Amino acid sequence: MADCIRVPLLLLLMCILSFVHPIRGDSININRPPGRSDNAQNSPAGLAPVAVNPGAAERNPGAGASLPRRRSAGWKLAEEAVCREDLTRLCPKHSWNNNLAVLECLQDKKESSSTFCVKTPSCPAGTLLLLLLFSGSRETEIAAECNHLLWNYKLNLTTDPKFESVAVEVCKTTISEIKECAAEELGKGYLVSCLVDHRGNISDYQCNQYITKMTSIVFSDYRLICGFMDKCREDINALRCGSISTGEKDIHSQGEVIACLEKGLVREAEEQPGAHTIREECKKSIMRVAELSSDDFHLDRYLYFSCRDDRERFCENTLAGEGRVYKCLFNHKFEEAMSERCREALTTRQKLIAQDYKVSYSLAKACKSDLRKYHCSADSNMPRAREARLSYLLLCLESAVHRGRVVSGECQGEMMDYRRMLMEDFSLSPEIVLHCRSEIEGHCSGLHRKGRTLHCLMKVGRGDAAAIDPNCQRALQTLIQEADPGADYRIDRALNEACESVIQTACKHIRNGDPMILSCLMEHLYTEKMVEDCEHRLLELQYFIARDWKLDPVLYKKCQGDAARLCHTHGWNETSEMMPPGAIFSCLYRHAYRSVEQGRRLSRDCKVEVQRILHQRALDVKLDPELQRRCMTDLGKWCSEKTEAGQELECLQDHLEDLVSDCRDVVGNLTELESEDIQIEALLMRACDPVIQNHCHEVADNQIDTGDLMDCLVQNKHQKEMTEKCAVGVTHFQLIQIKDFRFSYKFKTACKEDVLKLCPNIKKKVDVVICLSTTVRNDTLQDAKEQRVSVRCRKQLRVEEVEMSEDIRLEPELYDSCKQDINRLCQNIQFGNAQVIECLKENKRQLTQRCHQRIFKLQEVEMVDPELDYQLMRVCKHMIRRFCTESEGKNVLQCLKQNKNSELMDPKCKQLITKRQITQNTDYRLNPVLRKACKADIPKFCQPILNKATPDSELEGQVISCLKLKYADQRLSPDCEDQIQIILQESALDYRLDPQLQMHCTQEISRLCPEEVAAQEQTGQVEECLKVNLLKIKQEACKKEVLNMLKESKADIFVDPVLHTACALDIKHHCAAIPPGKGRQMSCLMEALQDKRVRLQPECKKRLHDRIEMWSYAAKVAPAEGFSDLAIQVMTSPSKNYILTVIGAGVALLFLVGLLCGRFTKRVTQELKDR
């Protein structure tokens, strides 16, 4: 140990034990100060101290006195003139004869010394005081010349090699056990220094007491440390830390010099402006002094004097030794009553601990075996400075704990204290002080205490206050990893205090200090139990925890095997450029949702934890590092005003097409993930809890969600338990799904192969649905032998189509086309339940052309497939179950129409069926059954109407009216005739089902038939009213429609419901054998009317006479337009036989007259013919 960086002989005023030979007074020679008499008496200590020549001391202050001349062994400090006045004033008289007692008294009048008594023959009283510590007194209490004398006295004692003999005897066993100390050459003053270095390994009680307690003298003045002055002389001068020459400064206040050097060392570490670079040798000496003073706070002279009053105030009952007083003062550092000077001294010491953990006696002692066990200081290639840093120790041991290794409870307790210390005071981390200086000055000044500055920096790091320097961000991330508050929330004092009330109420079922407390707090984020301050502190911390998966201890514990297997991770405190900490979680969640076929899946426990983290991250976009990093620009561009919880992600999803490529990819991946497990959306799940509990609890309890929960929520979106927030959230997710078919997990899974085969290069879900639906429809219409779309896909396709029909916003093209009309005509109608679409249908005549075309196409699809008519399926849900359980989906509307007039029919459903009938009768294309049945008849009889119509315009019932007339003429094909007959029967009961009649006769109906309209009986009374008042109708178009109606009624009595009702009994009696249709039953009744032998019911007779008059008037008002029309009228007339008989008789008579009378013209001569 030739370099002598340790404390040399620390023997001070050693009482020679009974088994050590006494040291005679003449064994130590001294130089007496000038004017000192030679009369000397034996010192009670058996020692003859030396008075040193001041001049010699000044020239060589570290060497002690030169070879003094011999003096008698009875020399006493009390007899020295320079100290007599102070001695008389400060020390009791009974202590004057004992040099040790005098030295103790003069060194620190204020501090009572501890004593260690050993019986020896040399001590007159049987005991001898061993001074355990020397504390400097106030500078003004002792004269400078007396201080000189005392300092040289101590210097001579500590540099006398003969005192090694005491160490050799007291520590004989220990020296043999410590090889380094056994190898020291005696007489050089290094033995005791070696023992001090290894005092942590000394088990012998007396030796430990001897070495530990006798070190105190060295800390009363830096010049008593071997080599310290030589190594730090230049730095002391450069930093102006004090004198290095005896007499220039109070020697007993030299602790301030050490403190000055320590502060200089801290400033250099923090790279403060103008910081002096301390030489490496001096740095080591400073840290060594701090280490040696780590067990007893008295040994840190500056801190001791700064904190004497605070020690009495806060730590009165704390015993000195083993760093206990330090820890007590650290715990009270931010108390209001703590003096600023003491707080400053404590902070300096904590900063030294941060640079070298050995400066903390308790930490070094408690964790010594664990450090050795887990090789935390075995890397020979690592710089010693880094190896000794507190951060390295914490990271190494935390890594062991997270890997499931056993670290002693005592060591973990010490680690906990220092992790909390790092979180409380940002200034203990040089990197933060260096790199976050501008952020602290600009945003966080005045918040130094209790971790508030650190949380303020976290807030800045989140982007809540301003932009943060990347170096500062990295420093904060490193500090969070070192302190590891995720393992125990109590480490973060600011969080602990802010969330105490929430923990006591919402998380009281979790053990105090359990890592799951943070998860519990996150689960209650944005709930009634959460308080604002806790919310802020929690998000600030979680922001940094989210950026390193290892900082969530539960996640790391459950997933470290999977991460190593799938993501090629390293140790807890090791990083890789190929797989940075932030990328590990992304890797894990990509594997979390793999199918069995895809392989390489996560373990069940790890997947549960990954889902937990995803649920938490969904609460705040800033908790997803990848999302925030890639979408920073887009968040500012599109979502700057979205400040509520969850709004930022929704905003990004809304603007998906507008995002930059990187942001669009990450938002798309996250949305795709949500489609499989919507429970990731924690806020949505909270809002939907009532409907989940009542309608979807079985699905929600399923650990493996494959989109079932969202399907359930969509299906129950209009239940009474559905809250507004839940409905909005579910609809928003539906709106997002239409942007990409991958966002619908079930649809993607069922139809992925079909999409790739049939709809390549199509991405939007709505376009994919249209593409696949068109394929299915074409295959069906063409009676293809094999459907191109798989059965599984067709089934899911139907679900998607029905869901899209519920809200017009789910069909973007339709919504965009009709947005203007919605604002104009349906502004008070809420979206959902297909209400807006229904509103547009009811106002179809007032729509813009573009919207009208879209609505018509929508209706065309719905009529072909009524299951896509959301409003019909919703309103008539129970009626469908009652009447149409055996009907196919495409025949549901037909079934409902057939049962419309049943007494069991729900009125609302009946009303909606009528609306659909009205819609169908406006255009044959909206009635697929009629269209198919009359496929040949329409172009044959109604081509002029088709030629006049534009492709996108509605025909307003013109084609159906054309077919009705042809039905009256009995010219339709059987299938078409059957369908027209149904339409005629339906419209005869309800005039609204005849669009032409309603269009042309609205005013006449209001004028002539108000009572019938008000009755709303739908029994044909309005039509009867128009027939009766035919002569009063003023509008020609309306009159024509009524005449057509009369003409149609002649074809079949079923078309005339009033007449049919009046004559029902007569038909049964007189015409039962005659089949209906083609006017047969009507002819039967007419013949019965003319037959005087037949007696008809009075009502029937009256109605028949009325009909004859109407038909007669119709014939006059609307004569035949041509021979064919005349022939048709005759053939369709109930008096057809009579008319034909008359016509036949006339033709026969004309023939007979011709035969009998010859020619009436003049005969022509033969000559004229031959010309």
List keywords for this structure.
rod-shaped, repeat, 66 helices, 1171 residues, mainly alpha, single chain
Verbal overview:
With about 1150 residues, the protein is mostly helical. Among the domains are: about 430-485, no CATH class; about 485-545, no CATH class; about 550-620, no CATH class; about 865-920, no CATH class; about 930-990, no CATH class. It has 66 helices and no strands. Helix 31 packs across helix 32 (about 605-615), helix 44 (about 810-825) crosses helix 46 and helix 56 crosses helix 59 (about 1035-1050). The longest helix has 22 residues, at about 1135-1155. It is rod-shaped, with a radius of gyration of 53 Å. The relative contact order is 0.03. Mean pLDDT is about 80; it is low at about 1-75, about 110-140, about 245-250 and about 380-385.
Which term fits the overall shape?
Answer: rod-shaped
Strand content: under 5%
Q: Please give the number of β-strands.
A: 0
**Helix residue percentage:** 55-70%
Poorly predicted sequence stretches spanning 5 or more consecutive residues: 1-73, 110-140, 244-252, 378-384
Kindly report the average pLDDT value: 79
| Biggest sheet architecture | none
Signal peptide: 1-25
GO molecular function: fibroblast growth factor binding
Keywords: Glycoprotein, Membrane, Repeat, Sialic acid, Signal, Transmembrane, Transmembrane helix
Region (Disordered): 31-68
